[in-house]
Design brief:
Strand content: 5-15%
Number of strands: 7
Distance between the termini: 107 Å
Largest sheet: 5 strands, mixed
Number of helices: 15
Structural class: alpha/beta
Shape: extended
Mean pLDDT: 84
Strand order of the largest sheet: 5-4-3-6-7
Low-confidence stretches: 71-85
Radius of gyration: 32 Å
Helix content: 40-55%
């Protein structure tokens, strides 16, 4: 009897162990399946997070219809529509009216201008004109300054008189401000590395080494630093700030290898989509850098859930608006949990973004009313659903589904903050978009040479990308301020910032 009891107990223990092992393997299968699906999407699939579609009559409220762009089309010309590109624009070339024109006349020969039947000269009745956009390689020239010298004699001493050279942006530099501006824009707007620029110059029989180009870029960054500091001050004094960080490689001194540094991006202003972009270079990602950057900031901050931002938000140094796009992404990637629940959560989050699209087409007061009346109830419902799922639902401990639930749960105290401020956004996409030029650039120039080069890159990127956000030609802007900044009043540096510079060049009304 004892033997039978022992055997039964051993069998039960064995079954229990096998059951636990099976549960662990199931969790591992779910986790690995999620990872495999993620990698498949990165390589083969679309990366859009769009997952659900609304029925035609769903989420329609009187007076809160989504803004529509009217389409007016003449029924007579439907068969004669121009072919369109993938972006939906007509396949035609547009160019400015003052573009230089080189004319070539292809005329009949003299004997062909005589009518063979009557023997009289043909009468010209018009012209056929064919236009083609052409290209000529960029031209370079030497800017030569001649200063006549005059001999003078005073009190028996002979002296030589000549006028002074105008103040130069970079002292004793052989490059004119126009060339320096072109180099900076090609690297930090067009993502063209310096070694490629050196090769392009060599094709024009102009030899400028990559090392010399690099020195010019660093010196330009140092000379433009006062403008960067002024713009940084204005960004941190604004009431609306978007922040993100992105890794960049930097050479390790003396080792010939690279290590990971970071570039912080701060986008600030008084509106929901401000133009000023500040790039701040740091050699690592420690929390102390964020504390130093934001030590005097007390407005509304948008960011992801990086711990440095969250710790400052808990101290109530500023009003933190965590990014709902990151929350949505967490649930989008959680493919191994309760799929019906996941779909429901994603649909609710989509409702928030749809209401925000409507709210931003209205005035500030109406925007706040829409958020209070329609968006807060959705957030409350999401909080209730996710709390209940974490407490009562069966969720695998190591799954991405649980990770998404916990990510959301940790942000509950801050999820409604954006509804209290008219200029606040539901997401941090403003900073995400400001990061893209840097991500594109690092794929081309690969790494930063040293810390000084990183700081110079941050300064120039800030000015160039702010120009692009304001639809200002960065090359024209940089060339102009380079000629003026050395003699400009330090107390009025704000006049040389991109937005003020553009206003000063507008014709008087």
């Amino acid at each position: 009897m004892n033997t039978l009891t022992n055997t039964l107990e051993q069998a039960l223990d064995s079954i229990k162990l096998l059951s636990q092992e099976n549960d662990n393997l199931q969790i591992q299968i779910v986790s690995l399946t999620e990872q495999l699906n993620w990698f498949k999407r990165q390589i083969f699939g679309q990366r859009s997070e769009k997952i659900t579609s609304l029925n035609p009559g769903e989420l329609i409220f009187p007076g809160l219809e989504l803004p529509k762009t009217p389409v007016v089309e003449s029924p007579k010309n439907l068969a004669l529509k121009q072919p369109r590109t993938k972006k939906g624009n007509p396949t035609k070339i547009e160019f400015p009216e003052d573009l230089p024109v080189e004319r070539t006349i292809l005329d009949l020969k003299d004997h062909e201008k005589i009518c063979p039947e009557t023997g009289k000269s043909l009468i010209k009745i018009g012209e056929d004109v064919t236009q083609k956009l052409a290209h000529r390689p960029g031209s370079y020239y030497i800017k030569e300054t001649i200063r006549p010298k005059y001999a003078s004699s005073k009190d028996g001493e002979k002296t030589i008189l000549t006028t002074n050279l105008p103040e130069s942006f970079l002292a004793r530099c052989k490059a004119d401000e126009s060339l320096l501006a072109d180099i900076l824009v090609k690297k930090f707007a067009d993502h063209l590395p310096l070694y490629r620029q050196s090769e392009i110059l060599s094709r024009e029989q102009i030899q400028v080494s990559r090392q010399l180009l690099s020195q010019w870029v660093v010196r330009c960054g140092l000379a433009l630093r006062p403008l960067y500091d002024e713009m940084s001050r204005l960004v941190l004094e604004s009431n609306n700030l978007f922040i993100d960080e992105v890794p960049v490689d930097m050479l390790t001194p003396g080792k010939g290898s690279v290590h990971q540094a970071y570039m912080w991006v701060l986008v600030g202003g008084q509106e929901g989509n401000p133009a000023y972009r500040i790039y701040n270079f740091r050699t690592d990602r420690r929390h102390i850098h964020v504390e130093e950057l934001l030590k005097n900031y007390h407005g509304v901050l948008h960011s992801d859930k990086y711990g440095a931002y969250e710790s400052l938000a808990v101290k109530k140094q500023f009003t933190w608006c965590p990014c709902w796009a990151h929350i949505r992404r967490k649930f989008f990637e959680a493919e191994g949990g309760d799929l019906d629940f996941r779909k429901k959560i994603l649909r609710k989050i989509r409702y928030l973004f749809m209401f925000e699209r409507i709210a931003w087409s209205r005035c500030k007061d109406e925007r706040l009313r829409i958020r209070q009346e329609y968006e807060i109830p959705i957030i409350d419902e999401l909080i209730s659903l996710i709390k209940d799922k974490l407490i009562n639902g069966k969720v695998s401990a190591k799954s991405k589904f649980r990770e998404a639930l916990v990510y959301f749960f940790g942000l509950i105290p801050f999820l409604k903050n954006y509804t209290q401020h008219s200029q606040a956004r539901l997401d941090n996409n403003v900073a995400e978009r400001a990061v893209r030029p840097l991500v594109l650039g690092r794929k081309n120039w690969l790494f930063l040479g040293n810390e000084e080069g990183g700081e110079a890159a941050a300064t120039i990127l800030s000015l160039v990308q702010t120009c692009r956000a304001l639809n200002i030609n960065p090359r024209e802007y940089l060339e102009d301020i380079m000629r003026r900044i050395m003699s400009h009043n330090n107390q009025k540096l704000a006049e040389l910032l991109p937005d003020n510079w553009a206003k000063s060049r507008m014709p008087p009304v």
